[in-house]
């Protein structure tokens, strides 16, 4: 997770496309065999590279993928540091020394104002709780927690929902990419907005509790290909046409938050989805599980 702070303060706060839209241009790839994460970013090319790549020239750097798995002598390089996420205090291994200055200048400079930029990895056992919405510990067999995610560990969205919604904004955005909504799981073959009332589902061999609808901020206004933000859309139309959740009356919703019943599992492209139960009673901020089970 990237974070930022005022120069010299070290009061780290998580960074996202809300404040730094050019973060959309950061790409990642993983190498689980060598336990590495490669982070690439747009960079100014030297003369020869400019002839070959034009404005698509990129550079990259590598950090450990699972810092918790490092031997103690290497883990000592990454101090555990406090970082704030939505006013919740959390901690992470500080990998900031790996960040090239060129990335900071390209992605995180705002109106020529410099900020300090940090990079953090989750510390096992130091996660943030979200048990006010979702299955209790008696059901999950573990606390309902997340690492650095906004709210839930998984976000799911139907491709048909995005395509139907695109018809409402195609004058402004002809090709609305599902990537604007940043789902972990994209569903194909379901009717548009079918996910709005899912309650429990199975994907492949894994079961999931659908905790809530996803109230949308303005990040979908950001074009993931350019890092440029549309002033109005799709935010204005989402708020007007997808105002479907009584718990978030001023925000439109697209997609659903989920939590897996098992701590570990697998998912594959092409897995079938079984909708095991539905509910019309999703309401942002309410623990639907307690209502159903109580």
UniProtKB/TrEMBL annotation:
GO MF annotations, alphabetized: catalytic activity; molybdenum ion binding; pyridoxal phosphate binding
Tree of life domain: Eukaryota
Domain annotation MOSC: ranges: 121-276
Family annotation (InterPro entries): MoCF_Sase_C, Pyrv_Knase-like_insert_dom_sf
Protein name, entry field: MOSC domain-containing protein
Species: Orbilia oligospora
